[in-house]
Write a structure and sequence with these properties.
With about 250 residues, the protein is of the alpha/beta class. The protein has eight helices and eleven strands. It has a seven-stranded mixed sheet, sandwiched between helices. Strands 2-3 form a two-stranded antiparallel ribbon. The chain has a two-stranded antiparallel ribbon with strand order 8-9. One of its GO terms (molecular function) is glucosamine-1-phosphate N-acetyltransferase activity.
C-alpha cells in the first residue's frame, strides 16, 4: 500500500470536481460521477484510493452541484463537501472546494471526478511529491493516449518550452502527438487563491477554466511543470455511454 509521507499529507488536500450533470451520459436523476461503473459510482474509486493512502475526510472535498444529495447520501461523512451553486467552470469549482478546506493546507490536488477511476496510489503519490519537491506553483498531470482525436495536446518544444493547445487550435502536424492533459492539477494554495480573482473567463463559454491557470502562471513567470503518467491506462475520460462501456470492460480486465 502506498501511503503519503506524513509531512506531505498533513499539508495536502484533494478537491474532486463532482458537480456536473452528465448530459451525454443521459444522467437525469443523478450526477455524472454517480453513474455506476462495475457496480460502484465512478467517483467512488478515486475516493477509496485517496482514503487508503491516508487522506482523512476533511482532506478530501467533493465539489457537488446537480443532485448533490445523491453524492452526500452515498459518501456521508467519509468526505467533506463544497456546493457549487452555479456551473461556472472547473477553476471556479476548484476555488469553491479550496475555500472549504482547513486553513493549514498549502498544497491542493484537483481531480476530475469523471476520469480518475483508474488512478493508482503510486501515480497520485508521485505527482504530489514531485510537485512539492519542485516548489512549483502549478503542476499538470499528462499522459500518452492511443486515440487523442477529440483532445488537446501537450506540445514540448526543442528549447524546453511546453504548451497546452486546445483541440480546436492544433495543426495537422500536432495531431500526431499523443500526449494530452488529464485535467489533474496540483496547486500551491496561496498562489491559486490570490490568482483566481484575476482570472479571465473563457470568451465563448463565460466560464473559469483550470487550463487558464497554466497560462497565467506562464505570464507571471512563476514555476510550473507538466508531469507525465508512466502507465498510459490510468486515465480514462467517461463522457458517453460508449466510453462507460469501455471503462466497464477495463475494470473487468477484458
Amino acid at each position: 500500500m502506498i501511503i503519503i509521507p506524513k509531512n506531505i499529507v498533513e499539508k495536502t488536500a484533494v478537491v474532486i470536481l463532482a458537480a456536473g450533470k452528465g448530459t451525454r451520459l443521459g444522467c437525469t436523476d443523478i450526477p455524472k460521477v454517480m453513474k455506476l461503473l462495475a457496480g460502484k459510482p465512478i467517483v467512488s474509486y478515486v475516493v477509496e484510493t485517496l482514503t487508503d493512502m491516508g487522506f482523512t475526510n476533511e482532506h478530501i472535498c467533493l465539489v457537488v452541484g446537480f443532485k448533490k444529495e445523491k453524492v452526500t447520501e452515498y459518501f456521508k461523512d467519509r468526505v467533506s463537501y463544497a456546493h457549487q451553486e452555479e456551473q461556472k467552470g472547473t477553476a471556479h469549482a476548484a476555488y469553491t472546494g479550496m475555500k472549504e478546506l482547513p486553513k493549514h493546507i498549502d498544497t491542493i490536488l484537483v481531480i476530475q471526478g469523471d476520469d480518475s477511476a483508474f488512478y493508482s496510489p503510486e501515480t497520485i503519490n508521485r505527482f504530489i511529491q514531485e510537485h512539492c519537491d519542485s516548489h512549483a506553483k502549478l503542476s499538470l498531470l499528462s499522459i500518452d493516449v492511443d486515440n487523442p482525436d477529440q483532445l488537446g495536446r501537450i506540445i514540448r518544444h526543442e528549447n524546453g518550452d511546453i504548451e497546452v493547445i486546445e483541440k480546436e487550435y492544433i495543426t495537422e502536424e500536432q495531431k500526431k502527438i499523443k500526449e494530452i492533459s488529464t485535467g489533474t492539477f496540483c496547486f500551491n494554495r496561496e498562489w491559486f487563491e490570490h490568482m483566481y480573482p484575476t482570472m479571465p473567463q473563457l470568451r465563448k463559454l463565460g466560464e473559469y477554466a483550470l487550463p487558464t491557470a497554466l497560462a497565467m502562471a506562464r505570464d507571471q513567470g512563476v514555476k510550473w511543470q507538466v508531469i507525465k503518467i508512466e502507465n498510459g491506462h490510468e486515465w480514462f475520460g467517461i463522457n458517453t455511454p460508449e466510453q462507460l462501456e469501455q471503462a466497464e470492460q477495463m475494470k473487468k480486465g477484458k
